[in-house]
Structure formats: C-alpha cells, structure tokens
Amino acid sequence: MNVFLWGVLPYAAFALLIAGLVWRHRYDRFGWTTRSSQVYESKLLNIASPVFHYGILFVLAGHLIGLFVPASWTQSIGISEHAYHLFSLYGGTVSGVLAVAGIGILIYRRRTNAPVFRATTANDKLMYVFLLGALLLGMIAKLSDTSGNGYDYRSTIAPWSRSLFTLDPKTELMEGVPVLYHVHAVVGMVLIALVPYTRLVHMFSAPLQYLTRPYVVYRSRDPRQLGPRPDRRGWERTGS
Description:
Blueprint: H1 2-27, H2 43-68, H3 71-76, H4 81-112, H5 114-118, H6 122-143, H7 157-164, H8 179-194, H9 223-226
C-alpha cells in the first residue's frame, strides 16, 4: 500500500491530468470553460470569486515553496527554520481561510439560487467536495501541531515530492508522516486527476498576456475636436 500510494498514485494522477487535458482540447474545446453563471446572479459571485481565487493562488504558491524549495536554500538567505515555519503557519492559515470562505459563499450561492443550482453538474459537486476537502485537511493538519516548529514536512514530504521528478520515488520517507498529511496528499492527488474533467480546467487557459499587454485607453468623444457625428444610415435611425 505504501508503494502504491506514494510510488504509483502520483504518476497515475499526472497521467490522468495530461490525458484529460489532451482529450478536452481535442474533443471538447468549446467546453473548455468555467461555464460562468454570472448571468443568473452576480452580487455574491463578485464577492466570492476574487476571495476564492486570491486565496487559492496563495495556497498554491505556499505549496510550491514548501515542497520544492529545500530548507538549505531558505537558510542560505538568512531565513531561520523557526521563521519559515511561522510564516508557513500564519500565511498558510490566512490563505486557506480565504479560499474556504470563497468556496463557502460559492456553494451557498449555488444552493440558494434556483437557476444557478440547475446549472450545477455532478462534476461540479464532485469538484467542490475534493477541493474543499483538500483545503480543510491541509489546514487541520497544519494546525494540529503548532508546538515549536510544527511538523517538519520539509524533511519527509518535500524530498518525497521532489524525488517523483527523478522517477525514483522515495516512498520510505512517507512511512512516518502523520495520517492527516497522508489523507491530505491523497485527496490532493485525486483532485489533480479530476481537474481536466471539471470547470477547474480553465486554470490552464488563464489569460497571462493580460500581465504584459499595454493599457487600453478609452477617450470620450469631444464634438468640439472631432466635429459632429455623421448621419446614421437609414436602418440605424431611431424613430422620433
């Protein structure tokens, strides 16, 4: 079981992710969307969506740093292990709370607004279960041991994660990991496998060009500079 969970399941999840992305792009390109329900309700969505997206971005950034930046690197730039774990504890908790709060409002919105609820698919419900489960389990695991530096996942889970990329998974590192971290990792891998088959697929088509494109400048029409507007064509004229 240890070999299957930490030596087989990660690659299976990654294979399902890639296969699903290829399949969606080839056969369901028009379905590659968030299936926005803003047309039915926008007040709660305008609150919940930014809260969730900012929260989940910080959560993902924290995971990338925690799993793939070795402790020797942070110590080399003067960040002590205690300072790192304090930042991880408080920063991760705030990010998790934001993401969970956003999901909570989104679920409430879907359940209380009839048109939005009718537009909710079985895949959406499954996605919410695993996404919310992964976030809550991660927060509970992190907060379950706050004494000292907390659980030192950078000496077990992090090197195991990095070993996956060398195709030599060090499954023995996961043997003494607390159960909550085990469950969190398994739920996270299942969530990765589900991404292409849910609305989460839109994360792979984020408009990154928005970060570098020039500003779009809008100018009001000044009749004193541009002169009077030309007469409209016959079919554009409004009745008097």
